[in-house]
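In response to the reviewer comment on reproducibility (Comment 2.3), we provide here a single inverse folding case reported in full, input and output, so that an independent group could reproduce the run without further information from us. The structure tokens appear first.
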């Protein structure tokens, strides 16, 4: 985690007294990035509809459209992993994959080792085990490989999506504890949508036989991860007449973060669907209710991207918590475990780290400095802390523009429901 970040912009954020509006959520980044790879593998000509407009998706669109020699994926971890696998099975291609300084310190060795075992030609251009990479594509035989199940699910998804393109298909055995299983299932579900047969053959084994991807029109549903910040806003609000409508979500979504509706029901937020037909995108209404748990214990092993939202929200609501399954947070856009502890301490909350895998708050407080919240080039730090202005008017935040990584219109959306933002230019 960086010690001090250069400030390009600072916001002071103020909440309205009453909330009420309809928000068009961004399209799912997770589904968009998977659909783009499957679209490319199918040789399709029409891009999936309702693609996310976030930074992570845009770098993939540009890479697959422009095919540059040097592909700069910036801070997009999904793009780095998915493109590494895709380029490996694209005959006649040879590209350098690089990104931000932080990206050059995010591990990729497990994926590269697996692809190399299958015969891929990948070279490290810097420190071994980390980007940048030079990937030269050619046909691969496939077969059976084992990789740890407790590393990033994006490694697993990257391998699964190219499995049908291998001459002998791919049998993938996951060893140890399997994290983020819903993201693996989301990948398999999206592959099914593209006409592929892929299945769990055992509790830890997935088989993708050699087969052809089908070209098809595909529509991306909106993002349950993005909804979590509106749930947090509702949970922190004090007005029981508040009502927020969120469009483009589906009941029974394969997105792992759709569990947010159940978790926030324990923090006093009720969810209502206008249409509950399977696979039909509809409008969700959030309302505040008076019941909530006095404490929340949860294992985020399957939904690590929700952890920041709940750490911040629970503490500010005064709800002690014990959250497990957080080890993957250390290799995200920043070390999210350390970042959360440091930034929450600025607000007067002492969060404890247990063995680098769990975060605990038992109600301990400290003197709050009320310094501006740093975002560490991490979109979810900005998104999860912004709602705190409901309890701390004028909350200051450095480099708020990082939300463009997953939710580019976030600041416009919260302005539309009455939040006020005062901007301060570069003070570095």
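Designed residues, in position order:
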């Amino acid at each position: 985690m960086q010690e001090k970040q250069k400030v390009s912009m600072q916001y002071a954020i103020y909440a309205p007294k009453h909330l009420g509006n309809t928000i068009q959520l961004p399209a799912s980044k997770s589904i968009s990035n998977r659909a783009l790879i499957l679209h490319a593998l199918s040789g399709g000509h029409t891009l999936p509809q309702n693609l996310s407009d976030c930074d992570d998706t845009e770098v993939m669109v540009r890479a697959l459209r422009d095919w540059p020699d040097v592909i700069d994926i910036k801070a997009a971890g999904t793009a780095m992993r998915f493109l590494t696998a895709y380029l490996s099975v694209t005959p006649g291609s040879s590209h350098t994959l690089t990104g931000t300084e932080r990206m050059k310190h995010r591990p990729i060795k497990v994926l590269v080792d697996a692809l190399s075992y299958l015969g891929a030609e990948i070279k490290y251009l810097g420190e071994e085990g980390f980007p940048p990479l030079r990937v030269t594509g050619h046909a691969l035989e496939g077969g059976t490989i084992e990789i740890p199940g407790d590393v990033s699910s994006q490694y697993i998804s990257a391998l699964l999506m190219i499995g049908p393109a291998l001459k002998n298909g791919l049998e993938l055995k996951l060893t140890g504890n399997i994290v983020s299983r819903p993201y693996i299932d989301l990948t398999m579900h999206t592959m099914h949508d593209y006409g592929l047969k892929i299945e769990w053959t055992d509790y830890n084994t997935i088989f993708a036989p050699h087969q052809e991807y089908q070209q098809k029109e595909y529509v991306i549903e909106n993002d349950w991860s993005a909804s979590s910040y509106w749930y947090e806003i509702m949970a922190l609000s004090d007005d029981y007449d508040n009502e927020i409508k969120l469009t483009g979500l589906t009941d029974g979504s394969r997105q792992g973060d759709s569990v947010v509706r159940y978790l926030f029901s324990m923090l006093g937020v009720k969810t209502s669907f206008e249409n509950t037909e399977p696979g039909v995108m509809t409008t969700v209404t959030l309302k505040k209710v008076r019941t909530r748990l006095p404490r929340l214990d949860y294992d985020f092993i399957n939904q690590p991207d929700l952890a920041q939202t709940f750490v911040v929200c629970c503490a500010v609501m005064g709800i002690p918590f014990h959250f497990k399954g957080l080890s993957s947070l250390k290799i995200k856009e920043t070390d999210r475990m350390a970042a959360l502890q440091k930034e929450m301490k600025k607000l007067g909350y002492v969060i404890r780290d247990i063995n680098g895998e769990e975060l605990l708050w038992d109600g301990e407080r400290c003197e709050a400095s009320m310094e501006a919240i740093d975002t560490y080039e991490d979109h979810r730090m900005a998104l999860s802390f912004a709602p705190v202005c409901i309890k701390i008017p004028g909350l200051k935040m450095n480099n708020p523009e990082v939300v463009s990584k997953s939710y580019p219109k976030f600041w416009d959306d919260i302005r539309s429901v009455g939040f006020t933002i005062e901007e301060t230019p570069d003070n570095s």
